[in-house]
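Subject: complex prediction, re-run

Hi both,

The earlier run crashed halfway through, so I resubmitted it with identical inputs.
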Amino acid sequence: MRIAVDAMGGDHAPKAIVHGAVEAARASKGRFEVVLVGDRDQIETELQRHFNIKQLNISVEHAAETIEMHESPTTALRRKKNSSIGVAIQLHKEGKVDAVVSAGNTGAVMASSLLGLGRIKGVARPSIGSFLPTPEGVCLLIDVGANVDCKPQNLLQFAIMGSIFFGRLFDIEKPKVGLLSIGEEESKGNEVTIRTHQILKQNSHLNFIGNIEGRDIMQGIVDIAVCDGFVGNIILKFGESIFHTFSASLKEKIGKKIHSKIGALLLKSSFRLVKKNYDWEEYGGVPLLGINGVVIICHGKSSPKAILNAVLEAEKTVEAEVNTYIKRELEFSGE
Amino acid sequence: MRIAVDAMGGDHAPKAIVHGAVEAARASKGRFEVVLVGDRDQIETELQRHFNIKQLNISVEHAAETIEMHESPTTALRRKKNSSIGVAIQLHKEGKVDAVVSAGNTGAVMASSLLGLGRIKGVARPSIGSFLPTPEGVCLLIDVGANVDCKPQNLLQFAIMGSIFFGRLFDIEKPKVGLLSIGEEESKGNEVTIRTHQILKQNSHLNFIGNIEGRDIMQGIVDIAVCDGFVGNIILKFGESIFHTFSASLKEKIGKKIHSKIGALLLKSSFRLVKKNYDWEEYGGVPLLGINGVVIICHGKSSPKAILNAVLEAEKTVEAEVNTYIKRELEFSGE
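This time it finished cleanly. Structure:
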């Protein structure tokens, strides 16, 4: 197996990305090869910072250009034919790699994946989910930004794709699916969710437990929370900001009082454990589901650890044949 | 001024409600009278728990029935003609009180307000907002549940009503209004928000600063965040749950380790300050905007303090003539 890593994408690229890729290659113990895609000189400079690189299964594919985080995806893709993400997707298309991992400009990763690899037959709209922490695991919130203004049929497909991905990745036979709404009763919600509830209920392949509310997302009662990308994106960004706000507020209140500072010191390990629980880096990245290929999208701020986890997730997604199952389920569902 | 308090509505009614009403009467220093509405016997028993009641400006209006929290609003209102909320709204309709405060079944409060008091001329849909904490104050998220599937014109009215309420309540001349979406650019969002952006931009009475994202809600960059009730309700419940999840998680990690326990003790005052910052009880309640009257809706879990603050908010809303300003602004806007 070969996994391409977009070495130039992300706020801390190429340094953090190359570092994470090296860790992934060490963790692979020869199961897969890591292909770093980007500016060869910069990548090789970064590689030299690490020990025993020669013994690792890493190669470099040169790409002369980089799409920056702030660039408009469509314009950038048109102008930069040799961008690192473009070259990585092309390698995937040609069957030279089995998966692509990128922490770059999300819009550009999505657009080049869609253009380069295309959709799985039967999938109307590919989708990105995101993992949110629960007391004992994670919940996949899907969709989180790729698709606004969805029809019930789109939400059904998000539920199916999310369910297959989650089930295969974590070896769960019937992951629990909830529909995000404003009340548990099936009559509660907006027009689209009320209609979606009915078609989710009728689908015998899904383990649909009904509507869930905002408060339920992180309680661990569902494995997959289905919503359109408008709601999902707002929830995701709101959630991320709350932890920052909360920590900043606590830090400010602790201030310079000596007993508070000692208290904070004594609680350090507890804080760290909580942080670990609510840390997206633990989950690495999320797949773009519904395309003809395996593309794992990482947070722009990805650290080496996030990249390591994303590469391992890519390996698992390929191995578990997630796309084969999605295809089998949706091929004849029409668009 | 007379302010009716629904003594029977809320998870901790009548005890917590009567307690809060007594505190409000003490705080009023004769500026207003508190009218407790509900079962006379129960209310009087509760009143006797407090000192010097005779010197306070409190009266009781009997209402034989109570709408429970779990009841279907429409059915309950039809069957229980003498419910505490129904009687309170009737008093308001007859001009015998100037405002109503209730922590009861939100649906029932809304329905009886709408039926009993009607909408302000020009208002297509009355709306509930909710205060969310920011580093140095609050942000009014509007709508949070009354209205799903909104048109741009509805969202414009939420922005106007929210802006008038916030401005009058906190003496701010031009409160900042943001439209909740998935990107700052005006082209970002779903169909409704993209069209709403245009009409908000054209309204010269609003201080519209543009789209905001989920992460911006609690940063203090806007005073009013506009969204439909589907999104608002999910955000609100998700946000409430995060704090609980976070605290529970921290408590669990602290566990029984002695140094962690000492640390927690030393940090107690800092934790309390943060909690105070993020405590909805500080804000008491939120008005149902756009109806012919002043109705403050409180959280079902309201404590005496929340009720006290809600009554003071009702006083301020009446005094500041919020409805006169809403009427002036929307009277000729058509529906």
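The first strand of chain B starts at residue 2 and ends at 6.

- K.
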